[in-house]
Amino acid sequence: MPSQLIAIFWRELNTASEDTWGYHLLEASEQGLNPDYSIADAAKGLRAGHNAAWPGKPCHGDVFHILHQGEGERKLFTPKSQRCNQPQGKTRSEDE
Fold first, then answer.
1. What are phi and psi of 74, to 5 degrees?
2. DSSP for 14-68?
3. If you ran DSSP here, which 8-state letter would residue 77 be given?
């Protein structure tokens, strides 16, 4: 299945129910989609639709969300850590 089609599914099904996801996954199966496993976020409708359409096939959790969250924290702390690595000015004892 082309990644563009998956992107369309995502836009349409971002908050979809088990029935909606199940319908679209079964429709994709009729067009030849037969994965050994799938990868999904924690969306309850998606996971329930996956189980309804492909019972017994594993659905692994994605890592996008944790990486995305970590990227935000990296952006928050990088400027602070860069300041910590810069040489400090003279101390009082050096001036005396």
1. -60, -45
2. TT--HHHHHHHHHHHHHTT---S-EEE-S-HHHHHHHHHHSTT--EEEPSHHHHH
3. H
Q: What is the DSSP letter of 91?
A: -
Residue showing tokens 């602070």 = 80
User: Is residue 14's pLDDT more than 90?
Assistant: no
CA distance 86 to 38: 46
| Tens of pLDDT, residues 21-78 | 899 899 999 999 898 988 888 888 889 999 999 999 999 988 776 777 777 666 666 6
Tokens coding 51:
């189980």
Q: What is the pTM for the complete model shown?
A: 0.55
